[in-house]
């Protein structure tokens, strides 16, 4: 399975065989071609592009706004060839991330599962370690990964700010120590995982931990202690494992980008840009941003976060809907043809992505997963 890339067009180099890409990817992803590799062929697992020189391997993954149906959507994603399945962690908005991940583990056999992005201020590191241990007991070590970040809606919906990066780094170090079975310190107290056999997975529990980052501080933490990085909306280059979140919907032939279906499936990607801009005082940088921000002027300041993040990455709210138009969808690349989606994915690869985490939305998530998979697989 290949994705045509812009680099191929500019260099004119022929594509290398997919098997070469597979070998290179297996060097940094042991699940490909090893534990379950004999059961997976090249059309099932990853989207990848090879040009002369170092091959660029793209893992086709997905991310879910954790719903009561996400465990079933994970099963469908596995059938369609998605490699990693990430679940959002935002308790005010979504179903419990760990419960749904465990339910997904029971319905799947191959995909890697994990929270993306785990918000450290929501849970004591021991609670996260115990949750990881439980998920590992169901899925196996090779099928679990975790991304930890500073928090966006997981914090803002509770009226809090994102965690400082020093806190995030300390959290990850503490979490790793607990999973290794070590005694460590948190908030002045000595702690250690003490589950006897039958009450938790035997330590050490070695799993990949990525860092959800955007700016230089988060990227520095990822380079220092992470096994990779998870960015949005642009990839962070220079990592062997660089996942990037991708929004949007693949249009049916002749479909209006401003159709209700398209906006329901991809409009959340436009709304989140405003939500982020308002939280960080940058609404004036968005087209029509000031007018859009004014839609929230009647909300009391102490409750604005509740209105602003209502439906975050799941639906387009009533306040946002007048501003999420077909023109906005096209301009933001959120409603595109299959060919345009392939080009978009190729562009992310050229910017340093090694994994595309596609986040579907709307009333028909299976349709979105299938349309995206068909588009990037060509």
Number of helices: 16
The portion of residues forming beta strands comes to 5-15%
Largest sheet: 9 strands, mixed
What percent of residues adopt helix (DSSP H or I)? 25-40%
Span between N and C termini? 8 Å
The low-confidence runs, each spanning 5 or more residues with pLDDT under 50, are 1-55
Basic shape: globular
Radius of gyration of CA atoms, rounded to a whole number:
20 Å
Task: Tally the beta strands.
Answer: 13
Average pLDDT over all residues: 85
Q: What is the H/E order?
A: HHHEEHEHEHEHHEEEHEEEHHHHHEHEH
The secondary-structure class comes to alpha/beta
Protein traits:
disordered N terminus, 9-stranded mixed beta sheet, 16 helices, 378 residues, two-stranded antiparallel sheet, alpha/beta, globular
In short, what is this structure?
The protein has about 375 residues and is of the alpha/beta class. About 40% of the residues lie in helices and about 15% in strands.
Question: Can you walk through the features of this model?
Answer:
By secondary structure, the protein is of the alpha/beta class. The protein is built from 16 helices and 13 strands. The strands form 3 sheets. Strands 1, 2, 3, 4, 5, 8, 9, 10 and 13 form a 9-stranded mixed sheet that branches. Helix 8 packs parallel to helix 9 (216-225) and helix 15 (338-350) packs across helix 16 (365-377). The protein starts with 5 loop residues before the first helix and ends with a helix.
